[in-house]
Amino acid sequence: MAAITDLQRLPLNLPDFIALRECGMIYVDKTRQIASLAMMRRQYVFVRPRRFGKSLLISTFEALFSEGLKHFEGLAIQDVWREERCYNVVRLDFSTIRHFDSFESFTFQFERLLDNAFGKYGFNPQHGEDRLIHLEVDRWFKTQPRQSLVLLIDEYDAPLTAVIDTPELFKSVRRKLAAFYAVCKSNVAQLRFFFMTGITKFNQADSCSELDDLIDISIDPMYGDIVGVTELEIRKYFSPYLKDAAATLGLSEDGTLQKLRQYYGGYCFDEDASVHVYSPWSVLNFLARPYRGFRSYWIESGGQISLLCRYLKDHAERSPADYAVEKPLNYGEMLIPTGSEERQRDTALLTLAGYLTIKRRELNTFFLGYPNRELEEAMATTYSERLLEGRSIREIGA
Prior knowledge:
Layout (H helix, E strand, L loop, with lengths): L16 H6 L8 H8 L4 E5 L6 H14 L20 E6 L9 H17 L13 H9 L7 E6 L3 H5 L4 H20 L4 E8 L16 E2 L14 H7 L1 H11 L3 H12 L15 H9 L8 H7 L2 H7 L14 E4 H4 L11 H8 L3 E6 L2 E5 L3 H16 L4 H5 L1
């Protein structure tokens, strides 16, 4: 077996497609599915838990539309992509706007993000207290040729989840974002492609009805593994690392893979309950340092999103064991957005956040449960921390 230092490098914590390819890192080839979306002149929204590869997906679209097949040598897309034209790509990462405590602070960060992203292509806004950034973006859009722009938005919901428990600030942020989305919708003729990712689904009627024409592929079986990594992909792309981990732990390769499945596998997001994936962040961290054993890498990286912890305060089911038994959820309830007037089921939110997953489907009912041991243990930790609220177990029992 080759020394681990001689192997192709793991793509750990590098969600930049071009940098990943230039560094010669392993790339799990998702480009056939990416091509099937990119060939369409449509607008999409895609929701997945954090650390599942959404940013790398956005970066891959960015590379494809801005530089064509330059960085895609040897990948599946070469067989199907025929478009030679390149485009101006505007990429907005809304995860950079999550730390603010006032509307003024949000507005400053939001406008700076738009200034920098659109400024690369001639957007020259007027600055002042009375500026309306969405109107300036609208004027710029109307100067662009038809079908000349690609707009990519990563974690569109980050500013909203940051203030979901501050109603007035939430409403102000929502209105500001809605005005921008209205501009995007009114200038759709200028867009060759639009793709937006998030972690939760907010009510389109309240927060972004301007984008109600988006095609939601979040539970489409065709794209159930467009992010994440399947067991076949682990065997195909990471076999040398799997061998090294097995040797390190004194297990067989099959035994190591079985442990990986127990700890990091079991995720299913599609409506047919047909496609299963592993947490890529946890798998890559384990393969990089197998001597540390099967740690809760997703949770250690911040998997316990603040939105989830705040939301759980309002739900009656307080024991992690309550979710160990499969929980039924009507198909329609899965689609109820976060923050809507109609109460969203805790199981639906937990599934979007990655704590629960679709185990199976019978007719119009999903059955949800923990995907793996990492999440089962994480849920116990989340609940215990919330129940203790800074107190010791001795103080709780007193």
